[in-house]
Amino acid sequence: MSQRIAVVTGGAGGLGTAICKALADAGRKVVATDTIAGTPEGQQWLDECRNDGYAFDLVFMDVTDFEGCGSAVSAIETEQGPIEVLINCAGITRDGTFKRMTPDQWRAVLSTNLDSVFNVTKHVVDGMMDRGFGRIVNISSLNGQKGQFGQANYSAAKAGMHGFTMALAQETARKGVTVNTVSPGYVATKMVMAVPEEVREKIVAQIPVGRLGDPREIGDSVVFLQRDESGFITGMDLSINGGQYMH
Ligand code: CAA
């Protein structure tokens, strides 16, 4: 695989880190973007990755800020070269029953999980189409496919991501740019471990495979979709959920 530049938003998060590592193992030059860039926490993430043998770049990007995303993309492309692989992975949860959900909880999740996909992709996709090659993978969720009690905001945003995937995939298909969605189920990350234990145990009991997913399993699926050889796969939603939702 050639040394194409792959940008992973939310790259220092639970799934993001595994995706960065899997892409690097597949030969990509990985740039992670995250709001922790430039903080001690960001430095600690870089150090831990370096100890594991990964020399990533970590760039500040607030995915809710359209102009800021543009500046970060320009800086990456000026310093490193064209972005040929984009993984939209930044995401948050603000769970709560709809009855109790506040406008702030709604806005935070829609903005970070869905507006973000527009904010980042908009600055990257024209260059991909001009060069005739691009791979975009949007990290959605099982809960965007089936809905989840306590996640009206998250389920709406994640379902929206795949709508975006299907529309953009049609607009970019003739220019060598594929756009796909990966929908992980419950994977052993901080986000899932934040679900109260008794609730989580009930969820795991519904997973036919009988366990949480491993973040690496998501990373490997992203690698598959963004390969140079995967140019005929576009507009799809790849479910990785241990059989929890079959449709
Ligand atoms: N279906 C139907 N009823 C349910 C239910 C469900 N799935 N879950 C809870 N209820 C019921 C409860 O039995 C309870 O009923 P009673 O009032 O009659 O006793 C009522 O709803 C309230 O439940 P809680 O006590 O749990 O309410 P809460 O306000 O304390 O918590 C919650 C609500 C925050 C949504 C909590 O249930 C929760 O955290 N749920 C998990 C949400 C979840 O799966 N989040 C995923 C995060 S990870 C992620 O998002 C990654 C990914 O992509 C997969």
Would you give an account of this structure?
With 247 residues, this protein is an alpha/beta fold. Helix content is 48%, strand content 16%. The chain has 9 helices and 7 strands; from the N terminus they run βαβαβαβαβααβαααβ. The protein has a 7-stranded parallel β-sheet with strand order 3-2-1-4-5-6-7, sandwiched between helices. Strand 2, helix 2 and strand 3 form a beta-alpha-beta unit. Helix 4 packs parallel to helix 6 (152-172).
Chain-averaged pLDDT? 97
Strand order of the largest sheet: 3-2-1-4-5-6-7
Bound molecules: acetoacetyl-coenzyme A
Individual helix count: 9
| Rg (C-alpha, Å) | 17 Å
Distance between the termini: 33 Å
- What's the β-strand tally? 7
Largest sheet: 7 strands, parallel
Helical coverage, percent range: 40-55%
Can you tell me the residue ranges where pLDDT is under 50 for at least 5 consecutive residues? Answer: none
Strand content: 15-25%
Shape: globular
